[in-house]
Amino acid sequence: MKLHDLQPNPGARRDKKRVGRGISAGQGKTAGRGTKGQGARQGGSVSQYFEGGNLPLVRKLPFKRGFTNLRKIQWVEVSLSRLEKLFVKNGMVTPEILAHAGVMKDLSKPVVVLGNGQLTKPLTVKVHRVSASAKTAIEKAGGTVEILPLAGGEEAGA
Question: For the domain that residue 125 is a member of, what is the CATH number?
Fold first, then answer.
């Protein structure tokens, strides 16, 4: 087979419809445009917005105000009281361990520890962000806090 032998399969291509070539051609006189009206005229077409004089659908719908921030970070919030219940003395708290414990489902979301509740056990906490009150409570109980970097590479901090 050579390049000059290549051709499409039979029936794969059709000839262009030649309109306005006389009545015997089947598309003569009005050339498939019907009789009169805007659609029959040259360049005559209505916009997608136009609905025959009715109020267009996009004008019937309510305004959607504001915007959605596509870079917003969805944090998984964990309170100190939850850590108190879940972990034993000198335990390690990481996103993987929290996911295994059923606290979070999506490991791609960063974790923040909030200062709600009391903490009496010393814990090693390795998460993406810790509130100031949670950090003081963890360190007061004898634990340590380590901040993990976010997926984008930057650190969230306290």
Answer: 3.100.10.10
Evaluate whether 31 touches 19 at the Cβ level (below 8 Å): yes
The total number of structural domains that make up the chain: 1
Tell me if 38 is assigned to some domain: no
For residue 22, tell me if it sits in a domain. Answer: no
pLDDT digits (tens, 9 = 90+) for 14-60: 999 999 999 888 899 999 899 998 889 998 888 999 998 999 998 99
Distance CA 28, CA 35 (A): 12
Backbone angles phi, psi at 96, to 5 degrees: -65, -40
Q: What is the pLDDT of residues 68-107, one digit of tens each?
A: 999 999 999 999 999 999 989 989 999 999 999 999 998 9
| Tokens (6 digits) for 34 | 């019907």
Q: Is 143 domain-assigned?
A: yes
Residue 122 structure tokens: 């010393």
Q: What are phi and psi of 63, to 5 degrees?
A: -65, 140
Q: What angle do CA 127, 130, 131 make, to 5 degrees?
A: 165
Q: What is the DSSP letter of 24?
A: G
Q: State the pLDDT at residue 157.
A: 61
